[in-house]
Write a structure and sequence with these properties.
The chain is mainly α. About 65% of the residues lie in helices and about 0% in strands. The chain is built from 3 helices and no strands. Helix 1 crosses helix 2. The chain starts with 14 loop residues before the first helix and ends with a helix.
Length: about 60
């Protein structure tokens, strides 16, 4: 895929969550990265509806 950015990034998950992600990756024969990317695509809209810390602190 042209223009794809493949920068390495470390992410930290609670152990139980990581185990669930690993289980799902194994079940689907996919990488952890792929599972997390798909989860982000599904959840992005809901997450963007959440107030930011700045919104909460400023009373917006």
């Amino acid at each position: 895929m042209p223009g794809t950015d493949h920068r390495k990034q470390s992410l930290y998950f609670p152990e139980e969550m990581l185990m669930e992600i690993q289980h799902e990756a194994t079940r689907q024969d996919r990488s952890l990265s792929w599972i997390v990317q798909q989860a982000w695509k599904v959840a992005r809209g809901d997450i963007q509806k959440m107030p930011s810390v700045n919104d909460v602190l400023s009373g917006r």
